[in-house]
Design brief:
- The structure holds 2 protein chains of 2 kinds.
- Chain A is built from 9 helices and no strands.
- By secondary structure, chain A is mostly helical.
- Chain A is elongated and about 65 Å long.
- By secondary structure, chain B is α/β, with parallel strands linked by helices.
- In chain B, strand 9 and strand 10 form a beta hairpin.
- Chain B is elongated, with a radius of gyration of 25 Å.
- In chain B, the strands form 3 sheets. Chain B has a 6-stranded mixed beta sheet with strand order 6-7-8-3-9-10, with helices on both faces.
- Chain B is built from 13 helices and 14 strands.
- Chain B starts with a strand and ends in a 7-residue tail after the last strand.
- Classes of the chains: A mainly alpha, B alpha/beta.
- The interface of A and B includes residues 118, 140, 141 and 143 of A.
């Protein structure tokens, strides 16, 4: 069973982990400020800019509504600009990151909405700037919820990364399609699915644990 | 210290009308004074206190705190001015992910103080609020009273000149309320901080404040010092607040038999309510009156309370005797700085008759 497949499977797992975690991290890095901006510019919030808010919201929604496989191909010129190439694992991370950024942005925005308004009022009454309010009050208070959302993002990225094979990105999903589906190697198919199930479970449990630890209630 | 002049706040509604949250508010709070604003919900109290540190920007009028016109300041200058004003809230508004110490440290972090300065500033605040033991605990593990203590310590961290209290005891039980009011009073005495308090609870006014403003539909309808407010509130709303707080309601037995005119009674006796304030509460005024005038009194109801460290006695009496003697006796009481309210007439021995 799985004759000669151990190395390709390990390699594919590493590629998946690489794609999911690096693009997840990058998406968190870029998505969090966008999410904070979405929240702060809402009508009635401290930096209320309704028109900017709606424009940003529209861009986020548009990006989210493009099917990932289309996005993957559509932004190839941009990918080449950023990664220097349009094929391979590293290249696949560009569309994965782009796809996850609006997802993270909405998650952060929603997490910030959950924070009691009184906390913002208290921070304002202490003379905090909007940046200080965001860094010292909003994000730390919302962190447990943001972690839950990032867990969700990582799991979504595990799914998206299966399509990375289209641009030669490799990974478990790609392996499952090429060996398991196209070459009728049922054992490879089952092995990849089992690994993915375990991976998703680990990500979910890790996220839950971290979120619970950060929640001091 | 706080000077509000001609303050208006209106909110435009979707249907084109406007809601007046504040109308022509004029309020002065002197340095070191504790001033309370009381009113029912919707009277504009919250908007009023939020206008003092400009969490709400008034539509019209001036807000002058510590000689600075806040409405004229730029945003950065306003933030600087806010460091001189602490604020505490009904629901405490502590950060759940910060320990007691780090919550109190927040205003100092915002002002970019060094870690060592912060440490030095907070130790005495923890001691003052009795939280030294709790410094590394998270708010979720604290009781409501302890949370409000943390909030008070946090509000004091930047050494403000003014402390704004927004219904600070409304979420606390009566016992904890007493403790928090006592702490606020100590803070006022020790640091000379000016307090502006808004509340719907008369107890807060009674125990904490020196002056009171009564609010109704966005207006301040009465300014008074707390002592005269309790004995002689000027407005019907003020009187209702005082009555509710003072348990001076006439008992039902008396109320049922009270007549506004003596005509239908066989032996009409005037019923009086007398307030003794301060010195007169300690002097034997009633017995000197009885020695000087041919009247007899019968005490039907009475109680004594302390406001601003001044005892106030309230007594309901019936006064027997010739009409001329009664008049002279009442005049004598008024001369002794007593407030005398003529409630009406009852049949003699109103209570005993039952």
């Amino acid at each position: 069973m799985l004759n000669g497949m151990w190395w390709p499977l390990t390699n594919a797992l590493l590629e998946t982990l690489y794609m999911v975690f690096v693009s997840g991290g990058l998406a968190a890095l870029f998505g969090t400020p966008i999410g904070a901006l979405l929240f702060l510019t809402r009508p009635g919030e401290i930096l209320a800019r309704p028109r900017f808010h709606h424009l940003l919201g529209w861009i986020v929604n548009t990006t989210r509504s493009i099917p990932f496989i289309i996005l993957l191909v559509a932004i190839i010129p941009f990918t080449r600009l950023v990664a220097g190439t349009s094929i391979g694992t590293t290249a696949a991370m560009v569309p994965l990151t782009i796809g996850a950024i609006p997802f993270v942005a909405r998650i952060v925005e929603n997490a910030l909405c959950e924070i009691p308004k009184g906390l913002l009022e208290a921070a304002q009454s202490m003379g905090a700037t909007p940046l200080q309010i965001t860094r010292k009050v909003l994000l730390p208070e919302a962190l447990p919820n943001i972690i839950n959302g990032l867990t969700l993002t990582l799991i979504t990225l595990v799914g998206y990364s299966a399509m990375a094979g289209v641009v030669g990105g490799g990974g478990l999903g790609d392996l499952a399609i090429r060996y398991g589906y196209q070459r009728f190697q049922g054992d490879v198919m089952i092995a990849t699915v089992v690994i993915l199930v375990v991976l998703v479970q680990i990500i979910q449990s890790g996220g839950d644990l971290l979120s619970r630890k950060l929640r001091k209630a | 210290m706080i000077h509000l002049s001609n303050l208006h706040k209106t909110y435009p509604q979707r249907d084109g009308t406007t809601v007046h949250a504040l109308r022509n508010i004029n309020l002065d709070v002197a340095e070191g004074e504790i001033c309370g604003a009381i009113g029912h919900s919707g009277a504009g109290k919250s908007t009023l206190i939020r206008c003092v540190n400009l969490l709400e920007r008034p539509t019209e009028g001036q807000v002058i705190v510590n000689g600075q016109d806040l409405t004229a300041l730029s945003m950065p200058a306003l933030r600087q001015a806010r460091h001189q004003m602490g604020m505490i809230f009904q629901h405490f508004n502590l950060l759940s992910t910060r320990t007691v110490f780090d919550n109190i440290a927040l205003p100092l972090e915002l002002a970019r103080k060094s870690r060592r300065d912060i440490e030095a500033a907070i130790a005495p605040l923890l001691a003052l609020t009795g939280l030294t033991e709790k410094r590394n605990i998270y708010p979720a593990q604290l009781s409501g009273g302890q949370k409000q203590r943390v909030a008070i310590a946090r509000a004091l961290a930047s050494r403000p000149k003014v402390l704004l209290c927004d219904e600070a005891t409304s979420a606390l039980d009566p016992h904890t309320t007493q403790a928090i009011l006592a702490l606020l009073k100590d803070i006022n005495k020790e640091f000379g901080i000016t307090l502006l308090v808004i509340t719907h609870e008369m107890d807060v006014i009674k125990q904490l404040c020196q002056r009171v403003a009564v609010m109704h539909q966005g207006e301040i309808i009465e300014h008074n010092d707390v002592l005269s407010f309790f004995t002689q509130a000027k407005t019907p709303l003020g009187q209702r607040f005082v009555q509710a707080a003072r348990r001076q309601e006439l008992s039902d037995i008396i109320k049922q038999r009270l007549h506004s005119k003596p005509d239908q009674l066989q032996h009409p006796v005037p019923l009086l309510r007398i307030f003794f304030v301060g010195k007169s509460a300690k002097d034997p005024v009633l017995s000197s009156m009885q020695q000087q005038f041919p009247v007899a009194i019968n005490i039907l109801q009475g109680n004594l309370e302390t406001i601003q460290d001044t005892p106030i006695g309230i007594m309901v009496i019936e006064m027997r005797g010739e009409e001329a003697a009664q008049k002279a006796a009442i005049y004598y009481l008024k001369q002794q700085q007593l407030t005398v309210e003529e409630l009406g007439y009852v049949e003699r021995d109103v209570v005993a008759a039952d």
